[in-house]
């Protein structure tokens, strides 16, 4: 390789490192003892912890190689403060969910080495999505992530619900991919390029080139595909079934890392190449945001399965995050980034508590089964209370500040209706979060739950401390989010 091409690889080194890790773990797992259909628990444990270590080391590499705006692969790949911020969140989410998954997979005879390999492979696709600087590289990252997610959604092969979840996700995901490709082809046909920098110049202020009807249609199709990936209304139909049917650790993974990566991709695409066309796409984002908040708030009220309730909760949270994107300026994007960081820890803690809901070794998913947890497992109940209050947006917990920054950006942009609807749906959403707390502390005790595993306890404790203590030192996160938002607009 010529020396002149070496700097071109510098921004891509974290992704190359993860790609090498995936191949090494795959080869290591294949050559372990045991046939194709046998489960080697020791190999699974070793590969899982190797994957966790790799995912924990990658953020250090991402941060170490950050510095200004770096372009790789001839303009297909970009590394900036925005991508660094989002990649660190994704890697934390992937590593934490992989740690929490180990006990569950071993108990349910699913401890196959392919699981951590697929999680790392999906994470690699997410990192590529976040740093995509071209519609083609974006699609490659998107499919690399999606193909891995389809498999792990159906990872429990002997369970009908898991198989159904994987099949639904695959069929609807293929539809979303087709919509994205059609939108990208329209953009290329009418603009003559798929590169984000070139598109930004083509449609920027002062440019003689106006966005025609074909470009607007292309943007609409791309918006629809990305709305599917973040499970925003009206493209949310897969989310409740997949969340309920997939194994609980897989649901936890879906709720954090892919969601954050898809929202980061949403911001990259809308603000980067189409930032100056905000008048064309703002109304669509406003509609999607309002619809997601309303449906997420009201549809979760009657849910009795806690994973299905969390699915509708995640739809509502996507609606809140999209408020910042609808604003379309630095303050709005900063609000979304702060919201995503807080959302990550709220969901890690909540799903840690859900994974701890076991009775006689069997998972408990019904919300009513939490009755009496406040007496039998006071620490677990206290942690769940913190996360539920935070999701409801009750001060001084971190969830309140996440919504505050997003709502303030909408008010500053004079999108008062959007902010008011956000506040009202938060009040409605508080009902089903507070119901869980009532059941834990005031309903008659059922048979007590099993003792949580140590790994889950560590993740829940750290997440709870972040949620509880965020208001004391919010500065570092807010400063980094502001720098990340500024870099997105500077590009």
In terms of quaternary structure, what is this? single chain
Mean pLDDT: 86
Major sheet strand order:
1-2
The H-and-E topology, N to C, reads as HHHEEHHHHHHHHHHHEEHHHHHH
Q: Termini, distance in Å?
A: 29 Å
Which secondary-structure class do the elements indicate? mainly alpha
Proportion of beta-strand residues = under 5%
Question: How does this model look, in words?
Answer:
This protein is mainly α and 491 residues long. It has one domain. The chain has helices at 6-9, 13-30, 41-64, 81-107, 114-130, 135-153, 160-191, 196-202, 213-229, 239-245, 248-271, 278-299, 306-327, 330-355, 373-376, 378-392, 398-412, 416-442, 454-469, 475-490; strands at 70-72, 77-79, 358-359, 362-363. The strands form 2 sheets. Strands 1-2 form a two-stranded antiparallel ribbon. The chain has a two-stranded antiparallel ribbon with strand order 3-4. A hairpin with a 4-residue loop joins β1 and β2. α3 packs parallel to α5 (114-130), α4 packs parallel to α14 (330-355) and α13 (306-327) packs antiparallel against α18 (416-442). The longest helix has 32 residues, at 160-191. The chain is globular and about 65 Å long. The model is unreliable at 1-6 (pLDDT under 50).
